[in-house]
Every structure is written in C-alpha cells, then in structure tokens.
Amino acid sequence: MLPRINNATANEDFIFSVIFENGEKGTFDLKPYLNLGKFIELKVDNNYKRFQLDDGVITWFNVLDIAPDTVYLGSKIDNK
C-alpha cells in the first residue's frame, strides 16, 4: 500500500505541495485531471484551493476526491 498524505498545500497553477506519511515531500500537478468529470468545477474561482484532508485523502467541497495512490504516483518527489 502506498503512503497517504499527511499535509497538503494548494499553490498557484493547480500545483499541490504534499508531505506523505513516510516523510517524503513532493509536488503534484492537478492540471491533467481538470477536464475530467467533476474536476472541471475545480478550475473556476480557484475552487481547487477549497480542499481538506480526510484520512490522508484530498477531498473537495463538491464531493470529489483524488486517491492518495494517484497523488503519490503522480508526484515529483523531492530527493533532497
């Protein structure tokens, strides 16, 4: 099982800074998902910044979430 998210910050241009439960830090680009289903709603008025972490999962106001496995596998991990 891949690690869940301990902390997430929504930055500009649909990029999230994330820290996973295993201590790894990285960035996740949400842009590839923004033309799919309910993700379209996140493009309006910076709605992507209206999120919360629920048991290590990024969730939004519109009953939408993105799996922590997707975030982990799609993140650029900072190896410093």
- Give the structural class: mainly beta
Which ranges are low-confidence, i.e. pLDDT below 50, for 5 or more consecutive residues?
none
Radius of gyration computed on alpha carbons = 12 Å
Q: Approximately what portion of the residues adopt beta-strand conformation? A: 35-45%
Arithmetic mean of pLDDT: 96
Helix % is under 10%
What is the CATH class designation? Alpha Beta
Largest sheet: 4 strands, antiparallel
Strand order within the widest beta sheet: 1-2-3-7
Describe the protein's architecture and organization.
- The chain has 80 residues and is mainly beta.
- The protein has one domain (5-77): 2-Layer Sandwich (NE0471 N-terminal domain-like), CATH 3.30.2020.10.
- The protein is built from 1 helix and 7 strands.
- It has one helix at residues 68-74; strands at 5-10, 15-20, 25-29, 51-54, 57-60, 64-66, 76-77.
- The strands form 2 sheets. Strands 1-2-3-7 form a 4-stranded antiparallel beta sheet, with helices on one face. A 3-stranded antiparallel beta sheet has the order 4-5-6.
- The longest helix is centred in the last third of the chain and has 7 residues, at 68-74.
- It is globular and about 30 Å long.
- The two termini are 24 Å apart.
- The mean pLDDT is 96.
